[in-house]
Amino acid sequence: MEVVRYTPRQLVERIRAGERSFEDALVRQYSRGVQFAISQSVSDGSVVEDLYQECFRMVLEKVRAGEVNEPDRLSGFICSLARNIVIEYFRKTSRRETYHAPAGEHAVPSPEPNQLDRLLREEKGSLARRVLDALPSDRDRSVLYRFYIAEDDRDEICADLGIEATLLSQILCRARQRYKNLFEEFAATQNKDSRGMS
Fold first, then answer.
1. Cβ distance 27 to 56 under 8 Å?
2. The predicted structure's pLDDT at residue 169
3. CA 195 to each of CA 92, 95, 189: distance values in angstroms, whole numbers, following the listed order
4. What is the DSSP-derived secondary structure letter of residue 17?
5. How far is it, in rounded angstroms, from Cα 148 to Cα 175?
6. Contact 86, 41 (CB under 8 A)
7. Alpha carbons 20 and 25: distance in angstroms, whole number
8. Please, what are the domains in the chain?
9. Taking a C-beta distance cutoff of 8 angstroms, is the pair 90, 113 a contact?
10. Angle, helix 45-64 to helix 21-39, in steps of 10 degrees
């Protein structure tokens, strides 16, 4: 059965018009990206699922209320909301750890990221975007963006690239490796620059 994909604008406009089937379509189209975004920071599967559900609850609520002012940028809006939900989860967890420390005892450091960890993660996210933009191969940039961020359908990507489906996995694997190598190179340079400034 062929899965119908809609443009971000179509999804937003149809959901605002009260067409519930398009809410399901939105979740289907962005499911993989939201799952990936949350699981990058959270390792507990049950927490990932809770945050995933909360993200789509808020997305649909905001779309219905007309709070998505730029429908064509729906992907970025959803990714940003997912990141904010993860940050808020860590904030609440950190506060609970502090409040529940028994009187007279030292609080055990929380295994969850503290404020510095969150800041470092945000810097890493910014670095990741710079690395993606700096990849020398247009195809690498395109395939990584379309598969992991825009969540385009595999068949659609293959048709646009003029390749067989079996070849896409190989292209993704090689693109990820080149991305990883460049990321490590950028990170090393950034760390060196930071030490030079200290």
1. yes
2. 83
3. 33, 32, 10
4. T
5. 12
6. yes
7. 9
8. 1-111 (1.10.1740.10), 114-198 (1.10.10.10)
9. yes
10. 140
| Six token digits for residue 159 | 């048709």
Token representation of residue 198: 């200290």
C-beta neighbour count of 158 within 10 angstroms = 16
Give the up-direction half-sphere exposure of residue 134: CA atoms within 13 A in the CB hemisphere. 15
pLDDT in tens, 90-133: 888 776 655 454 555 444 444 444 444 544 455 555 666 677 77
What pTM does this model have? 0.51
Which amino acid is residue 70, in one-letter code?
E
65, 41, 122, 106 alpha-carbon torsion, rounded to 10°: 110
- Which H/E stretch holds residue 70? none
